[in-house]
Each structure stands twice: as structure tokens, then as C-alpha cells.
Amino acid sequence: MARATKSSLVTLGDFFHFAVARFRAARLAYGHGTTNAVDEAAFMVLEALRLPIHRIDPWLDLVPTAPEKARLMTLIEARIGLRMPAPYLLEAAYMHGVRFHIDRRALIPRSFIGDLLAGGALPTAKPRRILDLCCGSGCLAILAALAFPRAKIDAVDLSAGALSLARRNVATHRLGDRITLHRGDLFKPLQGQRYDLIISNPPYVDAGGMAKLPPEFRHEPRMALAAGDDGLELLHRILADAPNHLTKSGGLVCEIGRGRPPLEAAYPRLPFIWLDTELSEGEVFWLSRSDLA
Known about the structure:
The protein is an alpha/beta fold. Helices cover 37% and strands 16% of the residues. It is built from 12 helices and 9 strands. The strands form 2 sheets. Strands 5-4-3-6-7-9-8 form a 7-stranded mixed β-sheet. Helix 2 runs parallel beside helix 4 (66-81) and helix 3 packs antiparallel against helix 4. The radius of gyration is 20 Å and the shape is globular. It starts with a helix and ends with a helix.
């Protein structure tokens, strides 16, 4: 039956519909750029052939070559058999149309801070100096550079592998003159530098969340996800040190996932401003330096 089904796959549309059916039957987990089987299948077949990923309809009648068909089938089966996130299989991820190279050295790009940067929804004037803490693949630093063309950006991560990946992405987008990468533990490599804007998507998954992670998420670096029993392990340090690295009118934007209740309980006097997006509510906060101080 499987052989007969595969032999009937002629057009890109055939592979797309086959992938949707297989993904649904396998009950895969999503959340690495897509939220359902249809979008996942569309991304995979389009990116595999390096076609524009925005719409699949114009390409449904395209007939892939024999090597392209073999690649598509291998990717579809690997997505199911390995439960590997699609961006890792394709070594590509997109945020607001911007393409990033990605592999298992870093978290797959998907921060709501990217939505705020792309939408011009941050409560700050045009910052000249920006810091990206826990930069991973460099995606947020790059989006910040695109959103604020006159800004200089420092980006920090503890992982040498993630920084190597970020270096590749910065070079691809020709932003090496504006983005400087640093290896170190949060603020430690910055030597007293101050910024108009600090953005951070740090590890924030609590112990309960880590225990329940679907297989797809277990392919990502644990150090980019796990943040202690309550998910606030790094947040405590970020909030304590951020005032020393913000300009007088500067502010901190930080993603915390489902950590809002324990965060507000731990800091009842901090006036968190929650920056909601189309797909998130109460997952990203803003605090000014004066609030933190």
C-alpha cells in the first residue's frame, strides 16, 4: 500500500497532500514556525525545493525531478520517524520573511519579540545601542538591526555552537559591521556597557514543562530551554543586573512563556507591562530602567 501510494506521487501537490495526511496520522507536535499539519507540509515541500514559502497554490502542479521526489519523500519520512522539527531537517527557519540558517546548535527561531520588532510595537524611541541576551542563532539581533537601521547591536550567548551559527547568519545578512557577538554568561562579557534597549528570549521552561516536552522539542539544546523548577532561574539574574546596563531612558523586553504568574508573585512591586501580540498574551514584558532601579 505504501509503495503504491508513493508511486502515485507526481506533482508537488501530490507530495503536499500526502505529507498532510501522513503528519495528521502520526499526530506530530508543532510549534517551530507552524502550528498544524497543513502549514508544516507546505513549508517542507516548498523549502525543500527552495521555492517561495508564502503560498503553495502556485506550485501545486509543478512536477519535481526524480532526485527532488526522493528528497521530498526522505524529508517526509524523517519528520515522522525521527520526530525531528522541520527547520532542523531543512536547516532553515523564517521569521517575518527573513531566512535564517538553523541546526541543532541553537533553539529554532520563534520568539514573540520578533513580532514586536517587525511590527514596530516596542515602547521605545529609536534605540542607538541594543543588546540581545541569549541570542542563540542571532535571529532577534538581526531582526533588531533591520527594524532599527542606525542601531549598533551586541549579542551574547554562552554556547560556542550557537554563536558560530549566529556568526553565519550575521554574515549572510551582511550585518557584521553593526552586530558584535560575544561569548559569555549573560552580562559578564560586556564590561559595563549600557544600552537603550535590551531584548532577551532566555531559557524559561520550568521543570514540569521540561518533563512534558514533546519529542520534537527534545531535539533542541536543553540549555536553551530549561530554567530550573519555576522557569525563573535566569530571569532573577537578568532583572538584578539589567539596571547596570541600561541607559537612563532604556528598557528591557523579555519573553517568559507561561512564567507570568510565578514572575509576578516573585516581584510584586515591579510594574510589568505585558506586550501582547496576535498569537500571544502575557508572555513578553517591558520594564524601564527606572522601574527596575
